[in-house]
Each structure stands twice: as C-alpha cells, then as structure tokens.
Amino acid sequence: VLDSQYGMYVWPCAVVLAQYLWVHRRSLPGKRVLEVGAGVSLPGVVAAKCGAEVILSDSEELPQCLHNCRRSCLMNHLPHVPVIGLTWGRVSPELLSLAPVDIILGSDVFFDPKDFEDILTTIYFLLEKNPHAQFWTTYQVRSADWSIEALLCKWKLKNVRIPLHSFSADKEHLASSSLPGRHTIEMMIISLARSDGT
C-alpha cells in the first residue's frame, strides 16, 4: 500500500494495527468493520482481505483522504469496499445511517489533542449504537503530558492496553519497514464501560 509515486504514506501506527488484524485474521470473516480516519486505509484493507465486511471512512472535509481510500481499495483489488465521509464530532446522515458494526479501527487518530473529544464523541455514539462493538486503536506517543484517560472516563469508556510484543509488533523491522522501532506506539481496545463500572 506504500505508494510514494502518488504521495500515499503509511504511518507506523497503521502497520502495527494491520499486524494485530493479521494475527487475529481467523476471527475476522463475517465481522462488520468500520475504519475511521482511514487515510491510506492499510488496516481496513487487511481486514477486508481477511474476510471482514469493511467500510472505510475519513473526514468529509478531506476529499483527498477519501480519494486515497478509494485508490487504496482499487490497488488492492477491493473495488466493492464502500468509502464514506465521516467527520469526527459531527452527527451526520452518514453516521446515523451506518449499518451495525462489530469492530471500529483507528490508527493514529489521537494525533492532535484538540480533536480527541470529537473523536471520542463519535466513537461513543458508535459504541452506544453497537454496545458489543470494540474500538481497536494504535497511537504514537508524541508527548508525555497528554492522555486520553480523563476523556475516556468522562465518556464512560474503558480501555485495555494490548502489549505490542503479544502480537509480534515490537520488532524494529515490522512489515519490512524500519518505522515502528523508532517510535513509541501503543495499542488499546476501547469499549463501553458497563454501569457496574467494569
């Protein structure tokens, strides 16, 4: 999916999330998967190749990102994967009419702290509609002084950290790329916290 000729760049977080999907590929056939902030959409493409029913999304205000999603699908022989515009924090007709989902994917969506609340608003809305769904997300630790823990608490969401070594994603040269080893990347699975606090 790395395509420098067209300026399509895969971030390290996407490689790590794709590795997690690959390790869990036997659980993916028939699962309904939505990738948010997809960009080049490596995780979504991997999920689709593994048999999941995938919808890719990125901001409706970023037509170039939506174009990259579509091109990525075509380059990977997935012409039927739908690509939709979903803007974080906005309850749009596209968001309201989404089919049920089992897994939401997001790689490096926690990039700019000013967007965190909008992202979690959208994720909370999707999890409320799909209470058994999970949000699988990888992010790069860019600053020691930001954290989404308080926001997760506010939105009644819980998170489970997934150690990278548990799915062989702690290698310096993951997926023939030297990218992940030079960055601190974390993975977590976010879901609704039940009313009993668990």
TrEMBL record:
It catalyses: L-arginyl-[protein] + 2 S-adenosyl-L-methionine = N(omega),N(omega)-dimethyl-L-arginyl-[protein] + 2 S-adenosyl-L-homocysteine + 2 H(+). GO terms for biological process: chromatin organization; methylation; regulation of gene expression. Keywords: Chromatin regulator, Cytoplasm, Developmental protein, Methyltransferase, Nucleus, S-adenosyl-L-methionine, Transferase. Gene3D superfamilies: Vaccinia Virus protein VP39 (3.40.50.150). SUPFAM superfamilies: S-adenosyl-L-methionine-dependent methyltransferases. One of its GO terms (molecular function) is protein-arginine omega-N asymmetric methyltransferase activity. Pfam families: Methyltransf_16. The keyword Methyltransferase applies. InterPro entries: Methyltransf_16, SAM-dependent_MTases_sf. It is found in: Cytoplasm; Nucleus. GO terms for cellular component: cytoplasm; nucleus. Belongs to the methyltransferase superfamily. METTL23 family. Interacts with HSPA5, HSP90B1, TUBULIN, UGGT1 and UGGT2. Interacts with TET3. Interacts with STPG4. Histone methyltransferase that dimethylates histone H3 at 'Arg-17', forming asymmetric dimethylarginine (H3R17me2a), leading to activate transcription via chromatin remodeling. Maternal factor involved in epigenetic chromatin reprogramming of the paternal genome in the zygote: mediates H3R17me2a, promoting histone H3.3 incorporation in the male pronucleus, leading to TET3 recruitment and subsequent DNA demethylation. This is Histone-arginine methyltransferase METTL23. It comes from Grus americana. The lineage of its organism: Eukaryota, Metazoa, Chordata, Craniata, Vertebrata.
